[in-house]
Amino acid sequence: MELLVRQVGHWQQPRWAATAEGGNVPRADLVHRLIQELANLAADAEGEPRRTVPRLDNDLVLPDQLRVVAADLLAADPPAEALARAAAEVTATRSAL
Fold first, then answer.
1. Torsion angles phi and psi, residue 52, rounded to 5
2. Average pLDDT by consecutive 10-residue portion of the chain (97 residues)?
3. Domain range spanning residue 45?
4. Is residue 65 assigned to a domain?
5. Do the beta carbons of residue 36 and residue 93 sit within 8 Å?
6. How many domains does one find in the chain?
7. What is the helix, strand, coil percentage profile of the chain, to 5?
8. Cα separation of 73 and 50, whole Å?
């Protein structure tokens, strides 16, 4: 997770708006999708209902949102399967960026 945050933490708006590799969505949308998936895994681990992570107007906050949901996931003490899925999602997102 930290590798991804370091990869994107310094990006300015034009980089967030650029299309992700081999896709047709902006990088910001791809990272937000990852954030939502991590939030879903955390909610599942806590036995809570899934909630929509707000898509804020400023893409520069995405690294902070990523840090928060990752911390929430770890605090939920998820099963190993959920952590493996989260790691796979992060790896796939990093590759697509």
1. -75, 130
2. 88 94 89 98 97 95 96 96 96 93
3. 2-11+21-96
4. yes
5. no
6. 1
7. 70, 0, 30
8. 13
